[in-house]
Amino acid sequence: MKEIILIKNGEIALKGLNRATFEDIMIKNMRRRLSVLGKFKITRAQSTVAVEPEDEEIDLDEAVEILKKVFGIAAMSRALVTEKNLGTIQKDAAEYLKDTLSEIRTFKVEAKRSDKSFPYQSPEICREVGGYLLSKNPHLKVDVHHPDVIVTVEVRDFAAYVHAGVIHGAGGIPIGSSGKAMLLISGGIDSPVAGYMMAKRGLILDAIHFVSPPYTSERAKLKVLELAQKMCEYCGTIKMHIVPFTHIQEQIRQHCPEDLFTIIMRRFMMRISQRVAKASSCEALITGESMGQVASQTLKAIACTDRVCSMPVFRPLIGMDKNEIIEISRKIDTFETSILPYEDCCTVFTPRHPRTKPSLSMVEHAEEVLEIESLIEEAVSGIEVETVRL
Ligand code: ATP
Ligand code: MG
Question: Tens of pLDDT along 171-183?
Answer without folding.
Answer: 999 999 999 999 9
